[in-house]
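Try it yourself: sequence plus zinc ion, in.
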Amino acid sequence: MSKRLLITAIVLLMILIGLMGFKFAGMVSESESDHTASVSDTESSENQETSDSEIEENIDSSAEESAESTSETEYDPEQDSRFFDTDSYLICANKKHPLPDGYEPSDLAWPEVDVVSARFTLRWDAAVALEEMFAAAAEDGVTLLLQSGYRSAEYQSQLWNYYAGLYGADDADTISSRPGYSDHQTGLAADIGSASNPSADLTQSFIDTAEGQWLYKHAYEYGFIMRYPVGKQDITGYAYEPWHYRYIGVEEATAIYTTDPDLSFEEYYGISGGDYAD
Ligand SMILES: [Zn+2]
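Structure, out:
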């Protein structure tokens, strides 16, 4: 009896173990299928991510393309006629931008101002502005003198040859322009001398004279900028010339001066300058 009971118990136990084992296997397979499902979920979400990032890349590249196409039509000062039209007061003459061959302004006039030795012409509006500037300085007790104004290509050639004979061609290039490249040939440039200290004329110590200081502070009010500011030789192509002022009109001169009094024309407008190309 007890033996039959034991057999029955063993059989029941085996059935139970069998059932449990079956159940356990089912659990494993369920969890495996869960796992499979979760992997495929991950894969599909990765696929989703991939396709999202592909879309983002497409958006990025189309943004880049539109940026590129924008840059193709972006403002280029080298193509701006204000700097190359000889009628413009922003006409650029530097070692990278010569004036048209044989250029001579058609509206040259003689400003009625005190001079160092010889009289010079300037383009009409520049001449009028120069007279106003000299008169305003005189009211402040400062006597400006005109040292140089418009210089023709021929005159510039003689001047450059003179300096080249004295110092050699390389040094002549740092203080005088080759014909066709001179700011003076625009008819908009004036070299200004000092009545209080003539020995400072055409030297960098001109900035320390009453005339140099007055011009530095007020020239922009009459449309003139210091064309060759201190420390900008690599950009303008010329050493510091605190006596050389260039007429560009009151609005433009004020814009440059109020940005930075020592900013060069080339820097402000983004025009190339520096040394001769050859
Ligand atoms: Zn000059």
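One thing you can check immediately is this: The domain at 77-269 is CATH 3.30.1380.10 (Muramoyl-pentapeptide Carboxypeptidase; domain 2).
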